[in-house]
Design brief:
It comes from Acinetobacter celticus. This protein is of the alpha+beta class. The protein has one domain. It contains 5 helices and 15 strands. It has an 8-stranded antiparallel sheet with strand order 12-13-10-5-4-3-11-15. A hairpin with a 2-residue loop joins strand 7 and strand 8. Helix 2 packs across helix 3.
């Protein structure tokens, strides 16, 4: 990102010149995009997106997903239930350790021939920008119900359901990110390609439904394509995380 410069009028006496003191952003915002994993009945085909804020020595990872009860969804004559349903309780996990989060992600799909790979795209931001993201999630938590508490995360049932088209892990992560970086995904519509990701059954279900395919980024793999190209915002840090054998 572009580093802003502010002027600090520090003087030793009335005749000292004004000094230009650059204040560099010290906080970090990362978009974490996990790949699809598994195969057959255990396949998770859509991937995952989460937001990681590093602020004043603390980690905040916001991990939204369909981690609770699923809800049936009807598309024309087709009703999807259980794991195949696109709707369910919207569960927000708030992690306090990036290491714990990424170790959990790295375990996904280990028993299959395809395990998860997480692509991390990081941006240097000012503390005030990072705080806007924290405030966004804190506002969601205010109307949420406590769900679980584990060693490194607390989870909440949000007032709004998780839904495949939005809000989902990608759309919520981008909504939060744009509080700090408004130009993020300005040209994201150019990277929307549902045919690249959705299985045939999902495509047929959507065609039979009242829903239209979105023109905004809602699939992790499409988001990853956008972030790799980074047409709107320069990426400051890139990392790839996977299970090390």
């Amino acid at each position: 990102m572009n580093v802003a410069t502010t002027t600090s009028n520090t003087t030793k006496n009335s005749n000292s010149p004004t000094q230009q003191v650059p204040l560099k952003p010290e906080a970090e915002l990362h978009l974490l995009v996990g790949s699809a994993y598994g195969e057959g009945d255990t396949e998770s085909p859509y991937g995952h997106t989460a937001v990681y804020i590093k602020l004043k020595g603390k980690d905040y990872i916001y991990d939204f997903g369909r981690y609770g009860k699923t809800k049936p969804e009807t598309f024309g004559l087709i009703t999807l239930t259980g794991a195949s349903s696109p709707r369910g309780e919207g569960i927000l996990r708030v992690w306090d350790s990036f290491q714990a989060y990424i170790e959990d992600e790295n375990r996904q799909g280990l028993a299959s021939s395809r395990s998860r790979i997480t692509h991390a795209y990081g941006y240097k931001v000012f503390d005030s920008q990072a705080s806007l993201v924290l405030n966004f999630y804190n506002d969601l938590i205010k109307t949420a119900k406590p769900h679980q508490e584990r060693a490194h995360f607390k989870s909440y049932i949000l007032a709004q359901d998780y839904f495949a088209l939005a809000p989902n892990c990608t759309t919520q992560s981008l909504e939060a990110t744009k509080k700090a970086i408004p130009s993020m995904t300005k040209s994201g519509f150019r990277f929307v390609n549902a045919d690249k990701v959705l299985p045939t059954s999902a495509k047929l279900a959507f065609k039979a439904s009242k829903y239209e395919m979105p023109k905004y980024l809602f699939l992790p793999e499409n988001l990853n394509d956008y972030l790799m190209a980074s047409p709107d915002v320069k990426v400051d840090m890139r990392n790839t995380h996977r299970h090390q054998k």
